[in-house]
Design brief:
With 313 residues, the protein is an alpha/beta fold. Helices cover 37% and strands 24% of the residues.
Length: 313
Amino acid sequence: MKDAMGAVEEAFKQFALGNVKMPPRSSISVEQSKGMLLAMAAFIGGEINALGQKVVTIYPENPTKHNLPTILGTVQLLDPETGECLAVMDGTFLTAMRTGAASGVATKYLAKPDSSSVAVFGAGVQAETQLEAVAEARKINDVKVFDTSTQRASQYCERMSKKLKINVRQSAEPRDTLRGTDVVICASTSRVPVFNGEWLEPGMHINGVGSHTPDTRELDTTSIRRSKVIVDSREAALTAAGDLIMPIAEKAISSDHIWGELGEVILGKRKGRTSDQEITLFKSVGLALQDVATALVVYKKAMQQKKGTNVKF
């Protein structure tokens, strides 16, 4: 996770510097299976110099119907000098890692320095890497988890307690999950808000990653209005983040409510947290630059360790 966070932080920095070429992602809905296909490509210049693309599918019914992850993907890494295919790799775990890494970077820049407790909404693969990244960014000693499936939440608590060697416990209801925590992780598949924004406490930092379509949201209008909102990309957020699109449609906020992009905060172009009372929110819909930067790290490590299989197409 430390390596992934380093790569993603540098990628967002290059994005803010104007060294990234990244067309809007294309999507296809597969109504019969309640699924979606997304295609994402990017070239990252500057210190990274990487080119690649990812095809990812999102099927919310996979865990219950097919015993498969909600998100599946394949990443292709290319040589930016020749266009040659360097590697094809699984994008499922990589997607979870790079999404967690982005939230870890956001936590590094936006959460209170002494943050030690976390509230987690959702107990899937995404929630695992989210917590892992937050624990990399801050010294975490207490975690409360809420999921609509008590069994899934229980299994998550057992796995993450062992993995991170911290106290991860199940919570019975959303309000108790939030109470007294410093960092809030929203990584569910819910199409509607997972808690009441009135329950947010001063000084909290929120990472919202679960919803990524215009008609879904994990955060209600009150949560958005009370928060200083930082996004991965303004263009992407205003196209795909229902958490922001819906309050704008309600005229509760305007697009100007977006304070800045994460890359701008990293560069110091926009200030992040300015007080211990401020509620900050990182809203991410996921960018191809995260996939390509993380894939390059995987490729370099594989080459160093002589891992992988050489394939001729």
